[in-house]
What we know:
mainly beta
Amino acid sequence: MKNRWNKDNRLLTICMVLLMAFVMTFTVAETTENVQAASSGLSAYKKISFYKSDKVNGTTYSMKYNSRTNRYIVYATKNGKKKVVLKNCSSGTIVTNGKFFYYESASFVRNGNFGGTYRKRTLMQYNLKTGTNKVLISFGGEGPVDGIIGCDGTYLYMGYETQYGDGMGNFAVVNLETRQIKRLKKDCSTVQKVKNKVLVTAVGFTHGGPVYLINRDGSKCKTICGRAIKVSVKGNYIYYTEATYNWKTRKCRCDLNGNKKKALTSWSRGIAG
């Protein structure tokens, strides 16, 4: 009886060890999969603007301004067939992964020197499969509308639209889960994943703008350059063309953490590099 009890105990111990090994293996695999999914998040969403269409999952999305309603019409074209997807879009730049649109809807009030003024502004999520809209954030009072410049599925990146097209102000990060918004009071144009950070540029402005690194949630902002007109990431470096307001430029680089800054050319007239 005692020998049988010992055998049963050994069998139970072996089963528990195997179960724990399985659970640990599954957990590690799941964590790796989640990390990989998060790392490719920003690249899963394409930016669509009124002057540049883009293709997502075989469908080309484009926008056209309706001067009668002061809003944009968003179209989807596939296999030669074009249909209207949205009519209530107020932002001239939106993002999509082929499943959702993120955009702002608002009532136009008036034009100004630095862009339009709107009221009843709402940040929206449109489900392409169901054709339904969801209000994420409602903004009170009057103000500029946001152009959406990027999304990784958890965080949405946007900025106030100006007369400069891709040049936007008051960069913001929206947590789509908590629906909280963080404004950084910086200009912006593009977002790009660099290592475990997000690289933000303001190259959409004719005169250039800041280049900075942030955490995905918008925290720990690190300025690389106060004013750059060209930015690219190649290999282990971030390259940027620094500029002054009297149009002297020089080409520079830093590592992917924003450190080890180095001027590659001397200051000169025109666009360096």
